[in-house]
Write a structure and sequence with these properties.
heterodimer, A: 301 residues, alpha/beta, six-stranded mixed β-sheet, 33% helix, elongated, B: 254 residues, mainly alpha
Chain lengths: 301, 254
């Protein structure tokens, strides 16, 4: 069996709002998968349904082959979730929190693994500190440790780096990368598209509860405009180039290039019009451009 | 297959949660009961004997103990659940593989423990006012445990139902307080006018207190078997409701 998560025809409505609309896709074991979309697109609802925090109105979700409704024990044992909201129990210390979390998953003695998690997440010195006394970033690390106490094969991180300092963000990603290398399946949602671009293999995009794209990262990037050139000219853009113009940014004309060689044509047209190039930047399409184009509705599936 | 470790861990967590603040959750209600005892015993010292051979001050003690047990068993589950819901950390017990039964049993058992602990504390500090050694200790224990079970179940129900602290406070002030105060804590209902006697007879807390008192004095307003039937039935009904609410995900899993 090679499917980590199997989502089939999942819909969820809250009153008149359709939070998820017939969403289907699978995540293979060992993948590093990103779930992207603007606020309200349904990412957290989908993760909630996956984790059993919400129940879908239609469709089925399986985690490592276990149905999240009928076989919820095995499904939840296979899943580690880092929730988006920064939450903690102020009554307990870091270590108590992790010992309790292990116990809920039926694990009695987990000290060796807890120590390792504390070490990997830079929490060793805070092990006996009360949760209240930790900074936001430290609390976030404890939440990551809580999601991993039962060594789940599938790990879901819902916006794990929101409001987290740069240093933690980097060390967190190193750790998650390490888990992925060790064979864990990782699913993440993030607002930082750079993170998805560097880390993830495949990307799903949600918009208003619908799946609008599901591609390997490279394909997604290649599908969009390709390369662009931003030009600052001494005069107005020659008419011959108007067709290539995608937008204007800070007084620069941004032109789409079908292929790198097309730059020759652009420069030739500028020369013919008797204009000078004041500044020129080649822009590689990044995930953000793709994302913005998708969300504008340039492609609705 | 039962996740016994999961249940036991949640139970221990709930025990520790109130034990870490035992000054508020155990010592405070014991002090409150002691104050009631001091004031009422002083004011009503020369009141007629509640039962033949039982002074008013002695009569008062089991009632106060049961009332404190009931209020604290209710408070334990309800305040824990509302806090977890409002702060959001309830997610950490919704994610693990715990069934409704394991979840409910852990909260319920912790509530019963807190209730019994408070009850033991109240009896210990008020015993000097003339409490006899119980004539039927087993009856007393059964009513204490079942009474805490009833209010513990009600606490879980209220904690799940309430979305804000003031809703829970309303539940506490308008349902729990009248139920526990209008239950014959401070008087034998035989002394009441017929209307209020009928109202008391409709209150399950009355049977808890009456049954508990029977354990100490060997006499009560109604038969201990009737009390056992009412308290037992209330427990089964409310615990089942709590279990069903948790099983259905009502207000917990959206």
């Amino acid at each position: 069996m090679s499917t980590a998560i199997d989502i089939v025809g999942v819909s969820k409505r809250y009153g008149t709002l359709t939070a998820l609309d017939d969403v289907s896709f699978s995540v293979r074991q060992g993948e590093f998968f990103a779930l992207l979309g603007p606020n309200g697109a349904g990412k957290t609802t989908l993760i909630s349904a996956l984790a059993g925090l919400a129940r879908q109105d239609e469709g089925t979700i399986r985690v490592m082959g276990h149905d999240t409704v009928h076989d919820f024990r095995d499904a939840r044992m296979a899943l580690g979730v880092v929730p988006q909201e920064l939450v903690f129990d102020p009554f307990f210390t870091v270590r108590e929190t992790l010992v309790f979390q292990s116990g809920y998953f039926g694990i009695k003695r987990n000290d060796a693994w807890i120590d390792e998690l504390l070490f990997k997440l830079g929490l060793t010195e805070k092990a006996n500190a009360n949760m209240r006394a930790l900074s936001g970033g430290m609390k976030r690390r404890v939440m990551v440790a809580q999601a991993l106490v039962h060594r789940p094969p599938v790990i879901v991180l819902d916006e794990p780096t929101a409001g987290v300092d740069v240093e933690l963000r980097q060390s967190l990603w190193d750790f998650v990368q390490e888990l992925n290398d060790a064979g864990h399946t990782i699913v993440l949602t993030t607002h930082y598209l750079e993170e998805a671009e560097t880390l993830c293999g495949r990307i799903a995009m949600l918009k208003r509860g619908r799946l609008i794209a599901l591609e390997p990262k490279e394909k997604l990037l290649a599908q969009s405009a390709g390369r662009e050139v931003a030009l600052k000219l001494s005069g107005p853009l020659p008419a011959a180039l108007e067709a290539l113009k995608t937008r204007e940014e800070d007084g620069r004309q941004v032109l789409a290039l079908a292929e790198p060689a097309a730059l020759e044509t652009v420069l030739a047209a500028v020369r013919e019009a008797g204009l000078e190039v004041r500044d020129l930047t080649l822009v590689e399409t990044d995930l953000e451009t793709v994302f913005v184009n998708m969300m504008r509705g340039s492609r609705t599936a | 297959m039962i996740n016994f470790t999961g249940f036991y861990t949640l139970f221990r967590k709930e025990l520790l949660r109130f034990w870490k603040v035992a000054f508020q959750t155990v010592a405070a209600p014991v002090l409150t009961a002691l104050l009631y005892q001091l004031i009422f015993a002083h004011v009503l010292e020369n009141h007629v004997e509640a039962y033949p051979g039982v002074s008013y001050t002695a009569f008062l003690i089991p009632g106060l103990a049961m009332m404190s047990m009931a209020q604290n068993a209710f408070a334990n589950g309800s305040s824990s659940l509302i806090q977890s819901k409002v702060t959001g950390n309830i997610v950490f017990i919704l994610l693990p593989p715990l069934t409704a039964l394991e979840f409910t049993a852990a909260y319920l058992l912790a509530a019963v423990c807190r209730g019994l602990l408070v009850g033991a504390g109240v009896l210990a500090v008020t015993a000097a006012f003339g409490l006899p050694w119980p004539t039927h200790p087993l009856w007393a224990l059964v009513f204490a445990a079942l009474g805490c079970g009833v209010l513990g179940s009600l606490g879980i129900i209220a904690g799940i139902w309430a979305e804000k602290f003031d809703q829970l406070a309303a539940f506490q002030n308008f349902i729990i307080m009248p139920l526990t105060f209008l239950s014959g804590v401070f008087y034998s209902i035989a002394s009441l006018p017929p209307l209020w006697r009928a109202v008391s007879h409709a209150n399950p807390v009355f049977y808890m207190i009456d049954g508990f008192r029977y354990g100490f004095f060997g006499q009560a307003d109604v038969s201990p078997w009737l009390s056992l039937a009412v308290v037992g039935a209330s427990f089964v009904a409310l615990a089942s409701l709590a279990l069903r609410m948790i099983g259905s995900g009502y207000k917990l899993r959206h």
